[in-house]
Amino acid sequence: MTEKEVIQFDNVSYSYDRFPVLENVSFRVVERDFLSIVGPNAGGKTTLLRLMLGLLKPTGGTVSVFGDTPERARSRIGYMPQHTSLDPLFPVTVMDVVLMGRLGDSKRLGFYKKSDREAAAGVLDKLEVCNVRNRHFSDLSGGQRQRVLVARALVSNPELLLLDEPTSNIDVAIETELFEVLHDLNKEITIVLVTHDLGFVSQYVKNVACVNRRVVVHETSEITGEMIHEIYGTDVRMVRHDTFSGGGTDCV
Questions:
Q1: Cα–Cα distances in Å, from 190 out to 132, 181, 251?
Q2: Global pTM?
Q3: Which of 62, 86, 87, 141 has the most Cβ atoms closer than 10 angstroms to its Cβ?
């Protein structure tokens, strides 16, 4: 059976102010893949995500998502940026944050349909944080905040989920919990994730895109110490994270 293609890069290059960030990049992502993008700082990882979203235009080559331009496919994509624009001191509730992900389907800011609120409750339930839905976002722990931001990306029912450094500033135990959640979500949707942490790769991710101006995609079983050294210019210690299994709560 032929695998359904979700993302296609064909000889893509991109430069910032004439400084080359990506050069002749070609790869594809198929349906229900879980692809991790790894590489050094300024190697082009976030640039790849922005090209997938159509927020940047390639200076050479083409990018297609679901067989169309990234701009036209954007409604089928959920996105969690590396740095949220939310002011942690602003008194917004968890439900308000998640509903922001439905603004593209609402005609006016703040006026949500019953279906919007039901969708938000459903995704909070799936991510096991519905019990905090009426709390202020600023009152949450780091792990709860990350789950809520993933929920915001998922509430529009995307077919493709893009995440930029979702485990930054959280500890190992919370990181493991989050990737268990993503592992379950991957049964239904395609996931592309940027990370510096290689510790979970072999356990959760199916393929790894090694980025340093150029991109080479490997299955996780193919990653070796020599490859890591070539990407980062140094040895990177792999750390095993034990799996986490926790109980959920119902969102009513």
A1: 27, 13, 25
A2: 0.84
A3: 86
